[in-house]
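Protocol step 4 of 6: structure prediction from sequence.
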Amino acid sequence: MKRKLLLISLILITFVTTGQNKMKKTEELIDKKDPGWVIVEGWIKTAKNKVQILPVDELKAKEALFHTQVTTRSPMGAIVFMTGGLLIDDGWIRILGSGNSRFNRTLPDWNKGKSFNEFGETPPFLLIADDAIGGFYLLNGGGLGTDVGKIYYFSPDNLEYEQLDITYSEFLEFCFNNDLDKFYEGNRWNGWREEVSKLKGDEVFNFYPFLWTAEGSDINKSSRKIIPIQEQYSLNLDLRKQIGFEK
């Protein structure tokens, strides 16, 4: 328990203080004595849900770690440095790492222009993962509420930022072991697994009628097409404004 709390604190402290000081060199962020990957890998080996570790490119991993400014002693830093990303449940959930040919996005590059403009800035939130239906998981840096360090789900079926009241480490536990059929109840169509397994990490399924409408409540009756995830993210933000969530 103490070990888990320490890992959580490492992410939170680094996340909140990023940009307040000069950016650390990559070598300063690599913890060879106590790497967090040992812990994360152990969690993956005992996971109930299918977890695929995407191969990492060493040069891209170092660059992504530097831009993220999180130590590899933390789970987030470990995933960025040691993986091209993680695919959960045949790619239904994609956890951002340092990028891969199948998952062509890095955690820092995906956030640039969304949660911050320049690397090294303190972001109000950080996009850490997303799913095949256009839902996004965010780590709160203060821009989503007072519960800094907790995860929110930007849900496609109501366009709300839902408080999950879990930390990054607990989010990994959720992905690895939670009943995802129950969490996504009503949002998985017949034959979804085969279709999702062929989806690229920078693509999502777009539905019409929209999932948040009464007409789109039965996903099996909605039409769906594959679109770039950037397009879906921008669409979700625009729709929030149109229906009055943001002004």
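Step 5 (inspection) to follow. The chain is about 35% helix and 15% strand.
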